[in-house]
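Hi everyone,

Forwarding the result from last night's run.
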Amino acid sequence: MTLLERLLGKLTALPISKLNQALLWLLLAVIAYISAQLSWKLMPTQEQVILWQPQPVSTASAQSQHDISALEQLNLFGQLNAKAEKPKVVETAKVIDAPKTNLSIQLTGVVASTELQNGLAVIESRGNQDTYSIGDKIDGTSASLKEVYADRIIITNGGRYETLMLDGLSYTPASNASLPVATKRQTPIKQDKSNDAQLASELKATRDDVLANPGKITDYIAISPVRKNDELMGYRLNPGKDPQLFTSAGFQGNDLAKTINGFDLTDMTQSIELMAQLPELTNVSVMVERQGQLIEISFSLPQ
């Protein structure tokens, strides 16, 4: 006799009314049903477990004011090579022109190394401290870290070398006399056209035209890379079909563009970053080499 049968026998012997007895039988039936369901759930099953996979969802990303994807596909500054480039041999020379920087940044720490490419610098900019390695762009500026020493760093800002001393130390020009650098930089000639309202208006119209139809960029300018011993030296600039804007902006045929707003055009990573910022630029500074002389051409680009 099962436990359930013994329980039923004891319950039927109790002196209860017929109505209560009917309710009792109903309650027992419910309990029996629940017990059976629990028993089936506890038994192992051979059902195949189907792994859940997310369904692909198509979302429309927010579009910026200008879509420059077509312009980026023109690869104006070349394509990023997946193959690792051979490290460049850094020659040593005396830093003749590395004045104290006027940027609002502080050097709070350095990790100098006998290998220049392994140095690190802790720089505070806009109230935030970050660690930078050689070649990194400093947050909030257009400058990049060039070299790290025990008491200072050398940065490139607008195509020029500048010195940032460790916080608390004083700068003296003589302190840079024996530092190794890659090359000696000359002081560029400045051509500032930032206040030329007519030029700014023409440049804005041209930019909007090119962003709407990227293929028309060749109407205004021709760009071609220049290499020496397999090393990218810059980009040769020449006027396009409509040379008026090219000359009005201060350029001449065969100018060799080196940097734009401090972005080194010979560094593919910086060139790609520059392309992404083109629609938002309001001030442009282009460093070109013309017959061996560096010339910095600046102009405004209203939104």
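The CA atoms of residues 95 and 289 lie 20 Å apart.

Cheers,
N.
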